Amino acid sequence: QVQLVESGGGLVQAGGSLTLSCTASGRTVSINYMGWFRQSPGKEREFVARILRIGRRADYADSVKGRFTISEDNAKNTVYLHMINLGSDGTAVYYCYAQVSDDVKLWGKGTQVTVSS
What we know:
Helix content: under 10%
Distance between the termini: 40 Å
Structural class: mainly beta
């Protein structure tokens, strides 16, 4: 199995930046993608970004393109989400995930990001 632990959430002012981290442990060789979803109050969980472990191709939700950057340190089994110019839509619980097969995602417990105006 794979365990995921997120960190880096917190309170940030509108227009500010924040970097989230997610470290995987356990059977990390099974991971194809790592990435992030987020869930705002009263909304469904939505895709934010992902990165392919081999080749490091990255995909982003349209809403975050140009403002969020996902990167990975394979040696540390850690994925990062660098967020800039955060707006009120950035307030959410951010969940790290690992895609270990076509239909299986494993999730972290989430980290809260709150953007204040």
